[in-house]
Amino acid sequence: MFKDQGAAFGPEKNRGDAGASVPNGEEPTINPDLIRREGFASEAEYRAYFATVDRDVSAPDRVEEPVRISEEHVLESRLQELRWEVENLRARLHEIRHQAATVVTENVRWADSSAHAQLGDQPWLKLAGAMAGAFVITRGLRRLPWGAVATTALPLAVAAMNRKLARR
Q: Which residue of 3, 18, 45, 157 could cross-link 40, Cys pair, CB 3.0 to 4.6 Å?
């Protein structure tokens, strides 16, 4: 038997274009509107075809009862979903950690190159020297007797202002 030849055994015969035969010899009741050889010409034809198919399906053929699924199956399915969600979150967290490490590394490189650009060679040593100098000067200024300095400097400042006003 070849691929294109149909087999005809007993009461079953090749029905040609209909493509369906019933074993008991009865003619099949096929709506000719449901037989499609090629695609649809337009969206309207497509929708009309499905409206015809929906109209031809009788009510008893439709499933009225929902298919019952065991509670164990539902729990297993939910467990699989939760496992997938956890794996997804782990992957996202790993990516965020990687990005954070990259950001920190790049910020350190930027700060180092910026310090080199502003202060030249050994910028961290120069910064440490400037901070130590500021600390020593601050300690020295704290130990000065500011009351005595102000008492001495105030008459000198007033005298300078009087001389300036007298020149005008």
A: 45
